[in-house]
């Protein structure tokens, strides 16, 4: 009788643990091939306490959330670059920040398109936009005469773009 009770408790505990797994956990747990750990994935997608990241009902909803957050993050980073540009007095720094701003302007437009595409279940094209977006922060770093002039959001965006690309790319089976 005691062994039957222990067996029941063990299965009940396993069922409770399995029920707590979310779509986000499942998606983030499958991104190792893209060099994205589950922790990095969850951290990037759930950094805002008001984010509905754990409420995503399935993998397509996680992909839509990731792409939407990448577009928002790029928009916020672009605003930070604009602010840095407006407070810069050095000509060479200004040139680098202006070029960086142009990169983000293009990325924001493309990421907004990608977010709409992924929300509609269309991953092709969006995957490539997200992959290209991963290189925007490095481009800004390369054009900056003074790396300290770049806002910290530039570096943070690289993680968001990497995670969003991995999530969307994982939705396409024949890559």
Automatic annotation (TrEMBL):
Please give one Gene Ontology molecular function term for this protein.
enzyme inhibitor activity
Q: Would the keyword Disulfide bond turn up in this protein's UniProt record?
A: yes
Keyword flag Disulfide bond: yes
Pfam families, alphabetically? PMEI
The signal peptide annotation in the UniProt record is 1-19
Domain of life, per UniProt, equals Eukaryota
The Pectinesterase inhibitor domain is annotated at: 25-142
Gene3D superfamilies of this UniProt entry?
Answer: Invertase/pectin methylesterase inhibitor family protein
- Keywords per UniProt: Disulfide bond, Signal
Coiled coil residues, start to end: none
The entry sums up its family as follows:
Belongs to the PMEI family.
Protein name, per record: Pectinesterase inhibitor domain-containing protein
What is the originating organism of this protein?
Eleusine coracana subsp. coracana
């Amino acid at each position: 009788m005691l062994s039957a009770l222990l067996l029941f408790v063990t299965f009940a505990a396993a069922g409770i643990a399995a029920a707590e797994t979310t779509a986000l956990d499942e998606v983030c747990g499958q991104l190792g091939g893209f060099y994205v750990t589950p922790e990095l994935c969850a951290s990037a997608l759930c950094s805002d306490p008001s984010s509905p990241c754990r409420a995503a009902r399935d993998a397509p909803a996680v992909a839509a959330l990731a792409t939407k957050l990448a577009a928002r993050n790029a928009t916020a980073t672009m605003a930070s670059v604009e602010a840095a540009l407006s407070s810069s007095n050095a000509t060479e720094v200004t040139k680098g920040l202006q070029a960086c701003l142009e990169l983000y302007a293009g990325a924001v437009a493309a990421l907004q398109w990608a977010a709409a595409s992924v929300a509609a279940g269309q991953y092709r094209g969006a995957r490539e936009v997200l992959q290209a977006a991963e290189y925007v922060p490095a481009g800004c770093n390369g054009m900056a005469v003074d790396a300290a002039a770049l806002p910290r959001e530039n570096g943070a965006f690289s993680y968001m773009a990497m995670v969003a690309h991995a999530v969307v790319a994982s939705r396409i089976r024949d890559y």
